[in-house]
Write a structure and sequence with these properties.
The complex is a heterodimer.
Chain A lengths: L3 H19 L10 E8 L3 H12 L7 E8 L1 H9 L6 E4 L2 H9 L15 E12 L9 H4 L6 E2 L7 H16 L4 H12 L2 E3 L4 H9 L5 E5 H9 L4 E4 L3 E11 L7 H9 L2 H9 L21 E3 L7 H9 L5 H8 L7
Parallel strand pairs in A: 1-2, 1-3, 5-6, 5-7, 9-10
Antiparallel strand pairs in A: 3-9, 4-7, 4-8, 4-9
Chain B lengths: L1 H18 L3 H10 L1 H34 L5 H7 L2 H4 L2 H12 L13 H26 L2 H9 L4 H30 L2 H6 L10 H10 L3 H32 L2
The chains are: A alpha/beta, B mainly alpha.
Chain lengths: 334, 248
């Protein structure tokens, strides 16, 4: 019985989430300042190393942390509703925009050198070992008999990035917006499972379901390093996933800003890179991963930016994806 | 009463308030959206099916636990409650591992409606067993023996004596199981596949509405679920009252 890996990874996630819900996992006593870090779930392991390294710097020596991790939307709404945070890090820009609208994060949060981007990744195709279905391009995903796994774009931020990667890849290949939209309809005919989070999708895929999983590159790296029987393919055209963060208005300063500066320093980005994230600046390389450059890399800004894309694609009644989901519902047989 | 208000009534009122926050038209639009109708229908059908299955097998299990003697009975008796103790998300995972694509016994029901059924059966099993069990324990066996001595066949004994005595417990257990089933989230989010119009249940649709910054829509669908639950529980308590008055 080949069970444990997935279960172990998952139980780990559950344990992490539970610890996060508890709210505090503060470091050693005697520190002068304590920062509340509220973030989405995947960078938890990276933050463990980042905080350790930050504590070794002069600026960070006296700073301890209370860390909270969970799904990006849940975390963002918690902060909006009053959970205290000195620094937030989310998977999607609209989750930070929510804090700006609530007056918790300053409107100028994108004025820094990276425009608010903390760490990057790309959308990749995760396939079975040896790539038995020979998946290389977006067109390969819509070939007969190919089963694709992507989380539900209405519940998962990661799935939204993947949908925009699929759409943008068509535009980059010279298709019209109408044809690119048609591609989403075709693609969704091949998607038989839509878990509610990207992590669940990964568990579904490593559990044996599907031929291709759309995933963050850093998640694919994590799963591969954990010994799963998978490999990943970098699509010829893909999106640059930009995870964003900000210091809140009433954060404890200068510690919070120092921490942000550290995250964006060469050393901080090096740690992110060692955890599979693509660095936000040139000149940072990882000893473990070479981060090959895709033929064509585009950004969400190329597609109009999140505020436009959110309404156009992900409005739960009128959005393109709402219609795509409806179109696959014509066969309600059990 | 104050306790009940703080814990239950106020939050429910808040949900109701939120659901109509943008007027009745929006409320109606939210609950009559095609994906909402599909999810609500699926949730209802699945929950009713699960209650029916568990009413039969839960009663059988309770019967065995009360009337039969076997080695390890105490252990089995404690295992019945495990579905309550296990985090639902873990339950979903374990079910996928056992009855999913990599099933060691070759049964694959994950990512289809049968998987939803399985998860709900697992999650709601204890309700019927635990409500029927004490009634069976207290059931006067002399009544059965008397009936048998008067020439009643076993089926008649069951129909005329055992079943009427069990019915109230069966109804309340079934009602609780139903209410739990229509609200179940964790295990289903793992095993269902969550495809709108096919395997997406209402609770997960609600989560999608929230993630899409549409809390009013989420609350509206939640209100429909609550309304259905309330109606079912009320019906059961009416039936119960009718039953005690008329002594079937």
């Amino acid at each position: 019985m080949k069970i444990p890996k997935v279960l172990v990874v998952f139980l780990g996630v559950v344990a992490l989430a539970t610890a996060g819900c508890g709210g505090s996992s503060s470091a050693a006593g005697g520190k002068q300042v304590k920062l509340d870090l509220v973030a989405y779930s995947t960078p938890a392991e990276a933050y463990a190393d980042l905080i350790k390294a930050f504590n070794d710097t002069t600026a960070g020596a006296d700073v301890s942390f209370s860390e909270s991790y969970g799904s990006s939307g849940d975390q963002s709404r918690a902060v909006e509703a009053g959970q205290h945070a000195d620094f937030v890090h989310f998977a999607l820009e609209p989750d930070v925009t929510r804090e700006v609208d609530a007056g918790i994060v300053g409107a100028n949060w994108q004025s820094g050198p990276t425009k608010g981007v903390i760490a990057k990744s790309i959308t990749v195709f995760v396939v079975r070992k040896g790539n038995p279905k020979d998946i290389k391009t977006w067109d390969d995903l819509v070939k007969p008999g190919v089963d694709v796994v992507n989380a539900n774009p209405f519940t998962s931020g990661g799935a939204r990035w993947n949908v925009m990667a699929a759409y943008g890849a068509q535009i980059e290949q010279g298709k019209s917006p109408a044809d690119a939209t048609q591609y989403l309809y075709d693609l969704y005919k091949h998607i038989s499972v839509q878990d509610d989070s990207a992590r669940d999708s990964l568990a579904t895929f490593t559990g044996g379901k599907g031929d291709v999983l759309l995933a963050y590159e850093n998640e694919a790296i994590l799963a591969k390093d954990a010994g799963e029987d998978i490999e990943y393919v970098i699509p010829p055209q893909t999106i640059s996933i930009e995870t964003v963060g900000a210091v809140t208005k009433n954060a404890k300063e200068p510690a919070a800003q120092d921490f942000l500066d550290f995250l964006l320093s060469k050393q901080g980005q090096q740690i992110f890179a060692d955890h599979g994230y693509r660095p936000v600046m040139d000149g940072v390389t990882s000893a473990n991963y070479d981060f090959p450059t895709p033929d064509t890399l585009f950004t969400i800004a190329d597609l109009g930016g999140w505020s436009k894309v959110k309404d156009e694609f992900f409005d739960d009644q009128k959005g393109i994806m709402a219609k795509v989901e409806q179109s696959i519902g014509v066969n309600p047989a059990a | 009463m104050a306790y009940l208000s703080v814990l239950v009534l106020l939050p429910l009122a808040a949900v109701a308030w939120k659901s109509t926050g943008e007027g009745w038209d929006t409320f109606w639009a939210s609950v009559s959206a095609p994906d909402a109708v599909a999810a609500l229908k699926l949730t209802l059908v699945m929950s009713l099916l699960v209650v029916a299955v568990n009413a039969v097998f839960g009663t059988l299990l309770a019967w065995v636990l009360v009337r039969d003697q076997f080695i390890g009975k105490g252990l089995v008796n404690s295992i019945v409650d495990l579905p309550f103790a296990l985090p639902t998300i873990v339950a979903g995972l374990v079910l996928v591992l056992l009855y999913g694509p990599q099933s060691p016994i070759g049964i694959d029901v994950a990512y289809q409606r049968a998987g939803i059924l399985l998860a709900l059966m697992f999650e709601t099993l204890p309700f019927v067993v635990r409500s029927v069990q004490p009634v069976l324990l207290e059931l006067d066996r002399e009544m059965e023996e008397a009936a048998a001595s008067l020439g009643a066949r076993q089926t008649t004994v069951f129909r005329r004596i055992i079943f009427p005595n069990l019915l109230p417990a069966l109804l309340s257990g079934g009602g609780l199981a139903f209410a739990k089933a229509i609200g179940e989230f964790g295990s289903i989010s793992i095993i269902s596949g969550n495809v709108p119009f096919d395997t997406q249940v209402a609770s997960i649709l609600i989560y999608g509405r929230i993630e899409s910054d549409n809390p009013e829509g989420a609350a509206a669908i939640a209100i429909v679920l609550l309304g259905i639950s309330l109606a079912v529980l009320l019906l059961i308590s009416l039936a119960h009252r009718w039953g005690t008055k008329h002594d079937v």
